[in-house]
Amino acid sequence: xxxxxxxxxxxxSPGQSITISCTGTSSDVGSYNFVSWYQQHPSKAxxxxxxxxxxxxxxVSDRFSGSKSGNTASLTIxxxxxxxxxxxxxxxxxxxxxxxxxxxxxxxxxx
Amino acid sequence: xxxxxxxxxxLVKPSETLSLTCTVSGDSISSSSYYWGWLRQPxxxxxxxxxxxxxxxxxxxxASLRSRVTISQDTSRNEFSLDLRxxxxxDTAVYYCARIHSVHGYGDSFDCWGQGTLVTVxx
Lengths: 111, 123
Prior knowledge:
The complex is a heterodimer.
Chain A: E1 9-12, E2 18-23, E3 35-40, E4 47-50, E5 64-69, E6 72-77, E7 86-93, E8 100-102, E9 106-110
Chain B: E1 3-7, E2 11-12, E3 18-25, E4 34-41, E5 48-54, E6 59-61, E7 69-74, E8 79-84, E9 93-103, E10 106-113, E11 117-121
Parallel strand pairs in B: 2-11
Antiparallel strand pairs in B: 1-3, 3-8, 4-5, 4-9, 5-6, 7-8, 9-10, 9-11
């Protein structure tokens, strides 16, 4: 099972909006409404930002939003802030046998 | 407040068994609302799911690691554990334990993580 494809890096200025894509297949991203997104600061554990394609856990800023179209999921960060600079990973549930596939990761830089 | 804490040796010799335990506080691993799992991240690389366990004792494994991995639970201690056998340098990674949110019986996201523990495989 191949990793989901994410851009290696995305950058933006404070206040701007950026979007990170996550491309998979009809067996993972396109199969279930179970794409999740994780933020990871250096030397820290990942933090859940989006689950079930577009839901936000309690306590996560509404500047983070998720969407999906076909085999591609997206994470949008609006009103970019310095604290958003981190690595972001998508993850898709791929059914019994494979279970979970992670994306290649995207480094977000705030200019 | 839910907390997960990994424990185990930080250095394991090649061909030996890596054993880690995750101690959970603030929730019961006997809850039917969640799965519990292990993931890892080699230095400078991405995340990889290793295995999950449900309160019923059902276990699920990454196909690429299945032959070397066992996940188990001790509900009396509110802990779950990972054994990875015949380790090699490629198994050097930060190992995380995590709670997995369950909806309609599917584990859909890793909603709480331990801080992670670095395990180095070296002689």
